[in-house]
Amino acid sequence: MKKLVSLLLVAMMALSLVPAMAAEEPIEIIVGCKSFGNGWPKTLEEDFMYQKILEETGVSWKLVLIDDYWAKMGQRIAGNDIPDVFFIDADHQYDYVEEDVMLNLDPYIENELKPVFDFLADTNRAPYLVNGSLYSLPRMYSTGTGSGTKSQWGLFVRQDWLDALQLEVPTDINSLYAVAKAFSENDPDGNGVDDTYGISGGSGIRGFHVIGMCFDFAFENYFVERDGKITNSLLSPGAVDALTWAKKFVDEGLMDPDIMTTTGTNNAIAGKVGLHMISWPGMAKQYAKDNIAAVNPNAKWIVTGPLNNEIGDIDYMYPYDGVGGGDSYALCADLEDEPEKLAAVFKVLNYLASEEGSYLTMFGLEDYHWSMVDGKPVMNPDEAIKSQANYISTYQIFSRVEMPYLLSKFPEAEPEFQYTMSINQYQYLNSLVVPPEGMFLNDMNAYITNQLAAFVYGDREISQAEYDKFLGELDSLYGFNDYVKTATEQLNAYGYGVAK
To answer: What distance lies between CA 39 and its chain's CA centroid?
Structure first.
């Protein structure tokens, strides 16, 4: 009897351990984020993405918002409180590698992270390399036919205003001027009030790109490949012509007066401008179409561009990062000494790179937010259910396969995004450039914006001599010539600007 009681006690004790073992806390991975998506859940219980990843991997993949990101990350580094996985950009990755903050991923590419790199396929790794080694996770911006996608900007035009004034869609700088002038002066909305402008765009000096692109000129500091060589956008032979035309538009009141301080979209929706240079979501997503219709049900916006290049180069629409670099995520170097946590990170990354995981980060929960129909994801038409997944892009560590995503999420905007992804955009290579040591790049870029605005708004004479003087100032104040030389050498090493 005693033996039986003893056996029963042992069995009961064993059973009592089962809940304790089942309740064992999962390994927690902190993911430091610079920003969150729209409608971010208030609690982890409400975060279905967190719960699904926990269910599938057994890992607590906890995204944490770090306000004032770079300052707070500096404090975390000093206090040895670095997130396990964290947001990184091209401007900081070199410093972080030198400070031994980021884990070298090279030893893990072929084995532990093989599913990730199979998923990334031909995604360009070059922008994420430091001293020849990979320290951050490449991000896939793919159209479905290869890595790298366009900026998806276009020139949106009020077709109903064109019709009212018997005008054609602009195709070059002269017709752009003619249409903008008519939209500003000929009462295109028929309300009898002088309350319209020709062109708006976003944001700031970038609103003038629609003019600059006609002369292969960008109103910013970009490195590009032209005639088989590396040059800078500010050195374009069309610079003075672009500035001259931009000033003409400003002087004649054809530009949105708020263009330097806003994106211009509010004025476009309000019916104040008839030409708007912007990425398609601001004008073609359903919420944008609804906002436009609420103000003016008869407004009809179409997308066009690029305009003809006046100096004989390719027709370009808007600058975009042609090598796909910039923002990414890195792993904390300390994980090398914590094999269990490192394995947990790999487990989640590989899950997010799987078909199931990637669909989760693009669309949400299958058979709730979306369902597979004839081999294609179709979103639940219930707006309340769809809106629950507005925040999930923050979980897209590697970004996404763009075209299937857009086709499923925004079928109402298919003509616009198909068009903007098909046209030539102005490809720059800055993500591969490391400025010379001691160069104050942010200060130089701010000076460039300030002085280009001075040319356009009449505070500085527009002439070749004065523009050359401006370039000389960039060199004397910031070492621009050395910057161009350094960038050329670095880009040549990547195979850009050299004989193929």
So the answer is: 19
Long-range contacts of 412-416 (CB under 8 A, 24+ apart): 412/284, 412/285, 412/286, 412/289, 413/280, 413/281, 413/284, 413/285, 413/286, 415/284, 415/303, 416/154, 416/280, 416/283, 416/284, 416/303
Amino acid at 106: D
Say if pTM beats, i.e. exceeds, 0.85: no
Give me 138's structure tokens.
């490449």
Six token digits for residue 22: 């089942």
Find, among 234, 213, 215, the residue nearest to 223 by Cα. Answer: 234
d(CA 424, CA 152): 10
Distance between CA atoms of residues 88 and 141, nearest Å: 17
- Candidates 241, 160, 168, 162; CA nearest to 208 is 241
- For each of the domains in the chain, give its residue range(s) and CATH number, in order of start: 27-148+324-397 (3.40.190.10), 153-317+429-493 (3.40.190.10)
Q: In this structure, are strands 27-33 and 85-88 parallel, antiparallel, or unpaired?
A: parallel
Sign of CA dihedral 459, 467, 305, 309: positive
For residues 201 and 214, give the distance between their C-alpha atoms in angstroms, rounded to a whole number.
16
Mean pLDDT for back-to-back runs of 10 residues, the chain (500 residues): 36 41 80 92 96 98 96 96 94 89 97 95 84 90 44 92 98 98 97 95 86 96 95 97 98 93 86 94 92 95 96 89 80 97 98 96 95 92 90 91 86 93 90 89 95 98 98 98 96 83
**Residues 6 or more apart in contact with residue 63 via CB below 8 angstroms:** 31, 33, 36, 50, 394, 395
Q: Give the pair of three-digit tokens for residue 133.
A: 């080694």
